[in-house]
Design goal:
By secondary structure, the chain is of the alpha/beta class. It has eight helices and 13 strands. Helix content is 32%, strand content 28%. Strands 9-10-11-6-12-13 form a six-stranded mixed β-sheet, with helices on both faces. A hairpin with a 2-residue loop joins strand 4 (31-44) and strand 5.
């Protein structure tokens, strides 16, 4: 579903997901979508994890995928990141057909998985060194690396192997690595899970920085308050289906929380 500046959200009907009216799908004003998903379907045997997801995120925009555990948030991000194959639909990232050309799509994305993704016997600095080499980053990558390590309070742990990291430290490093190369599309899956306030602030700063540079940001989280702080728009998923797309601010406060609970029923 396209999230337009003047779009109006209508509740889902029994026949299908919520709809919007506003600018044509894939555009917000004069800005083209860097993330464009149409009819995404993911099946595991007889189980349908995601069914008919439509989604746009424009350059400089941010969208939160919210919903209960098992709603299809992480599964959707895994498909966009090229970790899982789709059973149907279309995914374009920065103009690249991600389902037909997954390697090209990975070149324009930065992905923080919900779990794992780190080499236990490698240090944060070694992770960054490898990422810089694989991404073809210029000679100033070390300046960027040091800045992010300090921001995420990992400077003192830069040369310690990750095997001994706490859950929160590992999450912070995963987010840092996702945004290290300033990708056109930033995908963050549960970036706030088990993270302390300093890590939350560093992640929010990274998202603001990415948006200011014209990147599209897509965040999956079950923490509604942080979804509202992090993103301008939200897509609510239930049972693998989209049930609403609306400004994230509409889910803030007691009234927003009540509306969210109603959407999940």
């Amino acid at each position: 579903m396209g999230l337009g500046e003047t779009g109006t959200v209508h509740p889902a009907s029994p026949a299908g997901p919520a709809t919007t009216t506003g600018p044509p799908a894939g555009r917000r004003g004069d800005v083209a979508a860097l993330v464009r998903v149409r009819g995404l379907r993911v099946e595991f045997g007889e189980i349908t994890a995601v069914e008919g997801l439509d989604l746009d995120v424009v350059g400089g925009g941010s969208v939160a995928l919210v919903g209960r555990n098992g709603a299809g948030k992480s599964t959707s991000l895994k498909v966009l990141a090229g970790v899982l194959p789709a059973s149907g639909g279309a995914v374009h990232l920065a103009g690249v057909d991600a389902l037909s050309h997954p390697l090209d799509a990975k070149r324009v994305t930065g992905y923080c998985p919900d779990v794992g993704g780190l080499v236990p016997r490698a240090t944060p600095w070694e992770h960054l060194q490898l990422a810089a080499r694989m991404r073809g980053m210029g000679p100033h990558w070390q300046d960027r690396a040091r800045d992010l390590l300090e921001r995420f309070d990992l400077g003192d742990a830069a040369h310690r192997v990750c095997a001994g990291f706490s859950h929160g430290m590992s999450r912070r490093l995963s987010v840092l690595l996702a945004g290290f190369h300033s990708p056109q599309v930033l995908l963050l899956d549960e970036p706030f899970d088990g993270v302390d306030p300093l890590g939350v602030d560093a992640t929010l700063h990274l998202v603001r920085e990415a948006r200011a540079q014209g990147s599209a940001v897509l965040v999956s989280t079950h923490l509604l308050e942080l979804a509202v702080r992090c993103c301008e728009d939200a897509v609510v998923l239930r049972g693998g289906r989209e049930v609403a797309a609306l400004p994230a601010g509409d889910l803030s406060g007691e009234q927003g929380a009540a509306r969210y609970r109603e959407l999940l029923r």
